[in-house]
TrEMBL record:
CDD domains: ALDH_YwdH-P39616. The keyword Ion transport does not apply. It comes from the Bacteria. The lineage of its organism: Bacteria, Bacillati, Bacillota, Bacilli, Bacillales. This is Aldehyde dehydrogenase. Keywords: Coiled coil, Oxidoreductase. Residues 4-428 form the Aldehyde dehydrogenase domain. Belongs to the aldehyde dehydrogenase family.
Length: 456
């Protein structure tokens, strides 16, 4: 059904031609990518509205603007990042100098999910191109308008032998995973991440897995509650909670719970009005299957805020769920929707203990004015990345590598890390033939005693 094999063969021979090794070529292609996105801003916003009811504001901030920042940073630094780096050489290697050459892997496969369907496909591509690779992109089938637009954008900007898009669902993904790539970059669920890693193992292909998980949000008794409620409402309900690093659940100190609920309601109203289900600023749920899965969670507790839905429009109001326990179904897997279950704690140790017993999350957010307690959180819990007194913002700093740990993923990207993740570090020692000290050779009389003096 798919001409996947022939695309890959053509990309192999294009890569072998060496054009992508030239930094000038890479810079030209990145500029072309940026221009193609600029030319299509209206269509991108329209496709995101059709597929997810994303507002123009969110589409620009989280999909288009974000991508421009990645391209700009890459273009600014590429010449220096792509240069071989001279490193120190020990005295034992007298006469030699040592270098690290960043080198493209070759053919890369980039598989994307549906929640930020544009940005999560193209931001890794920026890294792949900057590092000098060819790429095959596989957008999500659940956002068909964005998928079609990505295909059109790539086809009209690049030769297929350099960058190609293969649209389709699981079968398309599986057909691609049968092939040998030199690097696979996958963003999606933990379950599919396992499938991707198994497929990659057959060819010993290295992988980056950008996965998800249940990201805890802990609000302590000394938090600045106004700002806390505002930033959690923003981080949770952006994209209707369908964000890999969205606050998944809330652990709240029991002394501040009532006040938090009041403030949380205030900010939800401020952002999305009295009836968020009618708001054009509020994203819908991607599919009926996900809508039903999420609506089921509303039975797991009492909605102290929200709880109403519109099945026809696939919308669920921003919801704060009380009366939830660690055993509730909503606490078993990543929620990935606008429902925030809330549980109380009395001491920070109690909150830390609960989180330590859960799989390593992709993100963690802690709200407290105490730097000592912030440090305690950082020292005792393993998580991909996160914020103190904020949500989501760490991923928008290109100087912070973005990725998970344990169950939430392998590897990281953004900014310089995007260049590094798609580059092999080739280590090279350049030796002179003018000298040849005898110490290393077996015939040298005092070899052993010299070795013992050097390596002690
Ligand atoms: P998904 O794993 O269902 O799908 C991701 C991609 O894999 C899609 O392109 C899909 O077509 C493909 N796929 C699905 N089933 C497959 C199979 N059996 N074999 C091969 N390929 C298959 O994920 P999703 O529902 O699109 O996205 C939601 C998940 O992604 C959440 O868990 C979320 O946390 C995670 N996510 C992570 C990040 C991150 O940066 N870490 C970002 C966004 C989303």
């Amino acid at each position: 059904m798919l001409n996947v094999h022939s695309i890959i063969q053509r990309q192999r021979s294009f890569f072998a031609g060496g054009k992508t090794k030239q930094v000038e070529f890479r810079l030209e292609q990145l500029a072309k990518l940026k221009q193609s996105v600029k030319d299509r801003e209206k269509q991108i916003i329209k496709a995101l509205k059709q597929d997810l009811n994303k507002s123009e504001f969110e589409s620009y901030a989280t999909e288009i603007g974000f991508l421009y920042e990645e391209i700009n940073m890459m273009m600014k630094h590429l010449r220096s990042w792509a240069k071989p780096e001279k490193v120190k050489t020990p005295m034992t290697h007298i006469g030699a100098s040592s270098y690290i050459y960043p080198e493209p892997y070759g053919l890369t496969l980039i598989i994307a999910p549906w929640n930020y369907p544009f940005q999560l496909q193209l931001a890794p591509l920026v890294g792949a191109m900057a590092a000098g690779n060819c790429a095959v992109l596989k957008p999500s089938e659940l956002t068909p308008n964005v998928s079609a637009l990505l295909s059109e954008l790539v086809q009209s900007t690049f030769e297929e032998e350099y960058i190609a898009v293969v649209e389709g669902g699981v079968e398309a993904s599986q057909a691609l995973l049968e092939e040998k790539f030199d690097y696979i970059f996958f963003t999606g669920s933990v379950a599919v991440g396992r499938i991707v890693m198994q497929a990659a193992a057959k060819h010993l292909t290295p992988v980056t897995l950008e996965l998800g998980g249940k990201s805890p949000t802990i609000v302590d008794e000394d938090a600045n509650l106004e700002i806390t409620a505002k930033r959690i409402a923003w981080g949770k309900f952006t994209n209707a909670g369908q964000t890999c690093v969205a606050p998944d659940y809330l652990l709240i100190h029991k002394k501040v719970k009532e006040q938090f609920i009041r403030l949380f309601q205030t900010y939800i109203n401020e952002f999305y009005g009295e009836n968020p289900l009618e708001s054009d600023q509020y994203t819908r749920i991607v599919s009926e299957r996900h809508f039903k899965r999420l609506a089921g969670f509303l039975e797991n507790g009492t909605a102290v805020i929200g709880g109403n839905t519109n099945a026809e429009k696939l919308m669920i109001a921003p919801t704060l769920l009380d009366g939830v326990t660690w055993d509730s179904p909503v606490m078993q897997d990543e929620i990935f929707g606008p429902i925030l279950p809330m549980m109380e704690f009395s001491t920070l140790d109690e909150a830390i203990g609960h989180v330590q017993h859960s799989p390593n999350p992709l993100a963690l957010y802690y709200f407290s004015e105490s730097t000592e307690k912030q440090e305690r959180i950082l020292q005792s819990i393993r998580f991909g990345g996160g914020c103190m007194n904020d949500t989501l913002m760490h991923l928008a700093n290109p100087n912070l590598p973005f990725g998970g740990v344990g169950n939430s993923g392998i590897g990281s990207y953004h900014g310089k890390s995007s260049f590094e993740v798609f580059s092999h570090q080739k280590s090279v020692l350049k030796q002179t033939t003018k000298l040849d000290p005898p110490f290393r050779y077996p015939s040298f009389k005092h070899g052993l005693s010299m070795m013992k003096k050097i390596f002690k």
